Amino acid sequence: MKQTLTTILLGVPLVLAAQNPVIRDQFSADPTARVFNNKVYIYPSHDIDAPDGNERLKEWFCMADYHVFSSENLTDWTDHGVILSQERVPWGNPEAYSMWAPDCVEKDGKYYFYFPNAPKGEARGFAIGVATADRPEGPFTPEAEPIKGVSGIDPCVLVDHDGTSYIYWSGMGIRGARLKPNMKELDGELQEVKFPKREGMPEMPPMKVGGQVMEGLPDGFKEGPYAFKQGGWYYLTFPWVRHEGGTETLAYAMSKSPLGPWDFKGIIMAEHANRCWTNHHSITQYQGQWYLFYHHNDYSPARDKRRSVCIDKLYFNADGTIREVKPTLRGVGVTEATSRILPDRYSALSPDASIEYLDTMNRFRGWETILPGRQSWVRYDQVDFSKLNDAYVVVCAKANANTEFCLREKSEKGRIIARIPMTVVSEMGPFRRDMSGQWITLTAALDYVPKGISDLVVTAGDEGVCIDWVQFKNRPHYFSAVTTPTAQPDADGYIRRWMLLEPIRQDIRSNVIFTNTWLEDAFAKTWFKGQQTLLPRDGQKVKVSAEQPDGKTTSQTLAWHALDSENYNVKLFRFAEKWGQQTYGSLFWMVTIIDCPEEMAGVRLAVGSNGASKWWLNGEPALLLEGDRRMVRDDGMSPRLTLKKGRNILRGAVINGPGLSDFCVRFLDENGIPVTNYTIKLQ
Questions:
Q1: Contacts made by residues 425-430, CB under 8 angstroms, sequence distance 24+
Q2: How far is CA 407 from CA 337, 353, 518, in A?
């Protein structure tokens, strides 16, 4: 929990991701969800590992404080940090680790936080306290004493439509009582209750208890009451063990009165399939939809005392009864395509596919989706593509090299959004021929962008693939389309208008090969027809031939693009991302026309490039930048040149291996001053 404490100390709310579980950096349980100020706030308990030396709590519930989380879209959750800890409760035992399920309600602009804790000294059992705040995220100030007459755990408060408030708790059954208007005291006389004798335990003296037992509930263990009102009915919901030796379900009863008697109706959620012993919940309406907030031990499969909050939609029948909720991994909320999408929180999965923990030593890292073969797929519903604009996709995956998988829309046979070959590597470095067992980040261009909200499907190729996450990204505006006949160099003399050819594939694993001899040979090869004479049109295609290391010749059909760079340095890597998949190991060709109003003698061509490059002016070599270079302004300077009056053709070629690629070009006069009094054309 050190990360959480750091967040609190710095005062910076931590934003958590979507999907079930919704709280992904710490254990959380017993979620009470409330709507305040058009946001949903979750007040859960906080499971932690037992402190060193405390054997009693190692396999039991261990809770020392409370956090609060908020969201406007049920997808992005902000952790506001600790709002109350056991050391700050005046009446509580500061070493009890017993801050179990809480609740929070608002009345007349004040927020009341109800929580159980073990009292100090010799006091037995649990008491329930109140802390108050002026904001739903606190800070909360606890009262000096707990509520008199309430002995138990799991408080819940219902503020009725007429302003009357009722408190419910677990203790000697599920009990309920009306609260006084101050929200801190029971309204009514306390009754002396004698505890039943338990075998092997000393007899407990009687104590004074308020409220009444909630009548009409089924036999069997019950706890965690949560009460709410909907459509003229009061609902009392609670975890319930319906079979001897079983685990908790979520069940409910209905009444026309806030304190019953209750008419038991049945199950809201069945027992967890993995026999996680507890479930605990709340039911809240937000923006017209009802939701069930509950917990499960997703991040702690072997220890069901370390739980995590989940959310699923809940629906009512016409007669007011509640439909059973089936837990999902996908959860609720719409996921922005520009956020990380986790296919392991799937909506549907092919029969042969599966999910596994990424790291069994740190399960908060999440899961991977394993798609073993061509028939394998995973579907993730409710992705919002509407904010994509000039986008590409990034995928964290692992598979054997030379396989391909696809992103599709709606179904495993749906329209292809992107094809992702495992030999295309970006954002991680150079090519790697054997991808098995290695997570690697891949980028790919989009074939198609869905409209609005749709479902995303990943389908595997012949050899299968493992997926960690998928994320769509909008490119910054590195380039804009040419819309005017001419352009000028910028204020510093840099040429920004170019005709760029899509990258030519190269098999370059290291830039150390960029010697003078190797480069002269590479740039002298005839890659395409008209290499030193062509003045291409925008969109014109050329056939490019390249000899590979194995001696075979491969060909590509590539297009020219007329572009204005948004930066003084022309970012070839970003150009390749958008107009070609060869982002690394690439050879780029570029051409532009310098139109001078008069002859300019004694100028020098100043170039910076990443990596090596060669430049020609009017068909004659002007400058070679050899070696493994980084793009530096004026890194290379040509001998003195003459720009003719009228048209001058400037060509360049940049070659790169495992690294980003860009270049910047300008002319300087005899005094090192940028030359700017000319126009730039592409035809």
A1: 425/583, 425/584, 426/394, 426/577, 426/583, 426/584, 427/394, 429/584, 429/658, 430/509, 430/510, 430/584, 430/585, 430/657, 430/658
A2: 12, 16, 40
Angle at 23 between CA 18 and CA 26, to 5 degrees: 145
Comparing CA positions, the residue from 250, 166, 246 lying closest to residue 214 is: 166
| Cα–Cα distance, 632 to 196 (Å, whole number) | 84
Instruction: Find, among 264, 283, 407, 270, the residue nearest to 32 by Cα.
Output: 283
Q: What's the pLDDT score for residue 112?
A: 98
Structure tokens that stand for 88 in this block: 């700050």
496 within 8 A of 489, measured Cβ to Cβ: yes
Overall residue count recorded for the chain in this entry: 683
Nearest to 399 by CA among 470, 464, 350, 353: 464
Give start and end residues of each alpha helix (H) in 216-321.
none
- The residues carrying an active-site annotation are 30, 223
Q: What's the token pair of residue 501? A: 């050819």
Residues 104, 165 contacting (CB under 8 angstroms): no
Contact criterion met (CB below 8 Å) for 310 and 20: yes
Burial 107-139 (b: 16+ CB within 10 A, else e): eeeebbbbbbbbbeeeeeebbbbbbbbeebbbe
CA 256 to chain centroid? 43
Cα torsion angle, 432, 436, 442, 446, sign = positive
- Determine the 3-state secondary structure of 176 from DSSP: strand
Specify whether the CB–CB gap between 107 and 92 falls below 8 A.
Answer: no
Q: What is the DSSP secondary-structure string of 278-296? A: ----EEEEETTEEEEEEEE
Sign of the Cα pseudo-torsion (436, 439, 443, 449, in order): positive
- Model confidence at 195, pLDDT cuts 50, 70, 90, reads low
The amino acid that residue 264 corresponds to is F
pLDDT value of residue 421: 83
β-pairing, 600-610 vs 641-643, is antiparallel
pLDDT in tens, 12-33: 455 555 689 999 999 999 999 9
Query: How far from chain centre, in Å, is Cα 397?
Result: 16
Contact 652, 614 (CB under 8 A): yes
Instruction: Answer yes or no: are the C-beta atoms of 80 and 138 closer than 8 Å.
Output: yes
Q: Diameter of the chain by CA atoms?
A: 110
> What one-character DSSP code corresponds to residue 575?
H
Query: DSSP assignment of 335-400, as one string?
Result: EETTSPB-TTS-SEE-TT-EEEES-TT-GGG-EEEEE-STT-EEEEEEEE-TT-SSEEEEEEEE--
Cβ within 8 Å of residue 53, ≥6 positions away: none
CA distances (Å), 545 to each of 229, 526, 555, 556, 591, in order?
73, 8, 4, 7, 19
Q: Is the pLDDT of residue 368 over 60?
A: yes
Could you tell me the pLDDT band of residue 198, with boundaries at 50, 70 and 90? low
Cis peptide bond N-terminal to 261, omega within 30: yes
Contact predicate 94/107, CB 8 Å: no
Residue 609, C-beta contacts closer than 8 angstroms, at least 6 positions apart: 625, 629, 631, 635, 636, 654, 661, 662, 663, 664
**Whole-number mean pLDDT of the chain?**
90
Given phi > 0 = left and psi -120 to 50 = alpha, else beta, which region is 581?
alpha
User: Exposed/middle/buried for 317, CB within 10 Å: 0-12, 13-18, 19+?
Assistant: exposed
514 neighbors 658 (Cβ within 8 angstroms) = no
